[in-house]
Amino acid sequence: MHTNININMHIGRFYVWGMFFGGIEALASSSSCVCTTVPCPVEGKNYLNAGGGGEGVYTYSLNDDGIAVVASAEVTISSADLDHGTDTTSCTQSYSRTMDDDGVEDCDAGHILAHRLGGYGNQTINIFPQDISVNRGAFNQFEDSIYDCIESGATSAKLSWTFAYEDTTKTKPDKVDYDAIFTGGDCLELNSAFTN
Fold first, then answer.
1. pTM
2. Residue-range domains of the chain with CATH
């Protein structure tokens, strides 16, 4: 079973959702998410489009405690997605804090797909607990490079992330591999690994 979620309309704090393939039952069974106004990630594929219509698939797996943690994601974006994301909310920030299990309590609610690239900060599916210095430093600079490649002529970019965890009980990833492959323009490929 998987959940298919598309944002059709966003007006203030109200959302209209398209849900298929038993998604409502799967969402109701998620107990690790503190948000009540947006769908929480569930095991398997979670679908969330970018702000300009770019298509995204976020794959979550269950850790040993039955909590859904992000394993990987793929999103294809174009210039239509640039600057069409959203900031985080108190809901997604609380969600990120509950997933920050390294004992330091120094994480941001990190966008998987960046706000500037069309990523929704108000959707827990696109959020993970991210080390504040990495989120606002090297990760941000990498996202700027992707933005510049699209703005300078790439017609699209296929972005992919792979998340690694210290062990199967953790909810905060300790490493993120990030790849970008471009169609058109002068950029071919960008990739980097980030500690978390």
1. 0.83
2. 3-195 (3.40.570)
